[in-house]
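Dear H.,

Thanks for agreeing to be a second pair of eyes. The structure we're designing against is below in token form, covering all 335 positions.
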């Protein structure tokens, strides 16, 4: 190979490396704010085609009559759904089987020899999840509005939702001078393979750490926001952007990212979503730690927890805003 060929090959290799992190055209853009502000949402139509199939809701089963004996009078050990009629109860159980365990069927949660038994941990968990779903739909309308959620919102036909997370094990520092690396420079999926802290969810969606980038007062005493706090915040924002398939401007105004007065209304919705996820993880998921077997836990011995991605799965609204709750009002609120 002569020198000219080597130069051409080297140039082509350099171009490939430079473009490796770019998405190929064509791309679609949608104006999301005033012209000239840079508030534009950019979408890859090829990715959207894949998301369409994932975010298509299954057809609802025919409605059942609310009349007749109640489930609590017809069946044993009905602790949560006893207020439904027998027909409504069976319809919801059938729907849940299709939503969560279409391959395993009823035996995923029930002992076929005695459906009333709580011997399978999956049944105990399912009961807690029904309570959680009702809580979301009744207590967090600031986030889910009247669209609401069902088991399918997270599970999409899988016994375990595909988008859950675990707290990683504590860092093995080896020596005190290494310090807390926070998982940085070990690219993780939660932060879109960036060098940001790989676990931005434990501080914000399990713990209640302040989400900050800039301090609200001057140095030296008024500003207690560290660079590492800003990096964790950027990690959370990256996770949220990826989970919803949107740019930063979906919730923020480029004129002033920190200004609530100039932000789109979606920022308030996201504010309540963060608090909802934290509530669900602490009051519904974590209390199930002793119920789950070890093979369903993470490396730290914790249970799977929810994040923005658990429901959204790449869509700005789960199922693109289609409401399955309208067909299942029994999940819309706690009686």
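And this is the sequence the design step returned. I haven't edited it by hand at all.
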């Amino acid at each position: 190979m002569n020198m000219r060929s080597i130069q051409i090959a080297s140039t082509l290799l350099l171009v490939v490396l430079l473009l490796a992190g770019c998405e190929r055209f064509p791309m679609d853009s949608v104006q999301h704010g005033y012209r000239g502000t840079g508030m534009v949402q950019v979408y890859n139509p090829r990715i959207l085609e894949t998301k369409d199939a994932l975010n298509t809701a299954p057809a609802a089963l025919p409605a059942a009559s609310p009349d007749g004996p109640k489930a609590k009078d017809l069946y044993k050990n009905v602790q949560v759904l006893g207020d439904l009629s027998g027909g409504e109860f069976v319809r919801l159980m059938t729907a849940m089987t299709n939503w969560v365990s279409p391959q395993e069927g009823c035996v995923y949660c029930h002992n076929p020899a005695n459906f009333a038994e709580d011997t399978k941990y999956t049944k105990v968990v399912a009961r807690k999840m029904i309570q959680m779903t009702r809580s979301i739909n009744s207590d967090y309308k600031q986030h889910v509005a009247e669209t609401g959620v069902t088991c399918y919102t997270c599970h999409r036909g899988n016994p375990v939702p595909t988008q859950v997370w675990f707290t990683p094990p504590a860092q093995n520092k080896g020596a005190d001078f290494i310090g807390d690396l926070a998982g940085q420079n070990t690219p993780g999926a939660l932060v879109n393979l960036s060098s940001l802290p790989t676990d931005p969810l434990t501080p914000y969606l399990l713990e209640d750490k302040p989400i900050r980038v800039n301090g609200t007062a001057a140095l030296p005493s008024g500003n207690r926001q560290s660079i590492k706090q800003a990096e964790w915040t950027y990690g959370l924002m990256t996770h949220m952007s990826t989970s919803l398939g949107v740019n930063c401007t979906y919730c923020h105004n480029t004129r002033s990212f920190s200004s609530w007065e100039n932000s789109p209304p979606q920022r308030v919705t996201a504010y309540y979503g963060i608090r909802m996820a934290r509530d669900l993880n602490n009051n519904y998921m974590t209390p199930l730690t002793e119920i789950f077997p070890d093979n369903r836990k993470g490396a730290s011995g914790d249970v799977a927890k929810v994040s923005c991605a658990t429901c959204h799965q790449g869509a700005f609204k789960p199922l693109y805003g289609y409401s399955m709750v309208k067909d299942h009002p029994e999940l819309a609120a706690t009686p």
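Two observations from my side: The first strand starts at residue 28 and ends at 31. The chain has a mean pLDDT of 88.

Warmly,
E.
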